[in-house]
Please model this.
Amino acid sequence: MDGKVMVFLRTSSVARAPVYAHLRRCGLTLVLVHPVAPLPPAFEGLFHHHLQADTCDVAELLPALADFLSASRLRPDAIVSLDEYAVYTAAVVATHFGLRPLPLPPAALQENNLKANFRLFCQRRRLAVPRGPVVLEQPPWWRACAAPGGGEAWERLLSAVAAALGDLAFPVVLKPSPGAGSLLVRRCDTVEAVAAHALTMWAQFDHHPDMKHFRALTQPVAAGSRPPSPAEAEMAEGQGRWDSAMTLATTYGTLVIVEEYVDGHEVDIDAVVEHGEVIFCAISDNFPTAPPYFAETGGLCPSALPAAAQRSLRDLFLDYVRAQGACLHGVLHFEAKYDPQRKRAYLIEVNCRLGSAETNTMLKTAYNGLELGECFARCALGLPVRPYVAHVLATRGDRELLADTAAVAAALGGSGDGFYAAGRYAASVNLYPAREGVLTRLQLPTTAPRLRADLGGDVPLVGYSVSAMVGDHVCPPPKRMYLLCWMVTEGGSVTEAVTRIQYLTEHFVQQVGAEEEQQGMAQL
Model:
């Protein structure tokens, strides 16, 4: 990869800094397009070039980037993004420059990111997804519903919502389409709760700073010189329901969709796919969220679910890969749920990028230092990925593979299907502000005494990232979904890893305003 030029649109969070640092050590020339300067200290010295430009408007970005690259005497070998808000834009720009978009062509990415359309894609291909979606159209008189519980407009809204939901059974989930993370996603148990949260979402659509990124996803796909992909050709033929959903998205920018709430275990599948072939795949468990919202609290890698549950999740993921075909090429973060009552896996969403926050650290810890960022770069540059993955996972040194993970990997198809045994279990925690106010103290358990005989000695803090600084105004979910920090530890068993992350969580200290508290176990 030495000497290759990679252009990244937006930095994503500070948790990406180690990924960029590794790619720079691989000899890549890193060019950043980001709307603000200076960058946070975590990114200092990582990029060779920085174009300060907005990434939402492709028509403005294309000439600005072309001029910048020309003036810098750079010829890009890849144009990509690790940021949810710029993956689609990067694909459009890459196509314009004659480069391969990752991990899908622009039209397929647009369909994936517009959640209502993605559900239709899954249904056409018989991929198991929550029942729905129902699109709640935004009535022109919605502002008249100032307060739930009274007024003709409120009763009118309740009737409209009930009619739209039809026979969709409660509980249901409301989410924005497009959307990112758990922003504005909420479980609702009644028609009144659905209507009230829809009003909240419509109000947020007017002024939330992230809405411009969502609206960018409704921009037309730039025409390229290459022939259309199967997904693009299918859409060009005219899919009535897809066209209807796309028209609504273009009209309103962001939609409120409602779908069935699936109970059970939430998991992530982080995968490397090369020309439609799975090269690496890891299933991780998510710790329970705090209803009715879905702010992530941490997790365990690899999964501790029974092999039968993991086989169901594997089959769902492989069905998705086959549905996309050879045009699928890159690193994915696939989110699903497994319902033990129905004994079935359900696809929730697919993030067409590396998993964010602690994901990279978790996978490196569990899988012998495997760098998903390097896999991503190799895909972008057209370099083979399988030899790199096989080499890293075969070079274990003195560390033995965990027997239980080896048995599950074999049951899932082994390395031929991208499943490898892990060397350690990694556990993480995501920590949020305890209340709204000014952050006056934040202390990680990096220097406090951590020797515990029942934990096998010193509790390792193998990775962490702090997203807030003393003096920042912070507030907890659902008003904001931003973390104070995340932490990762490891262990030789599920119990050891989970017990260690619980211990580290108990010794995390935050102070908002005048009140100080240790984290305790409320968030795990």
Q: What stands out?
A: The radius of gyration is 23 Å. The CA atoms of residues 84 and 407 lie 34 Å apart.
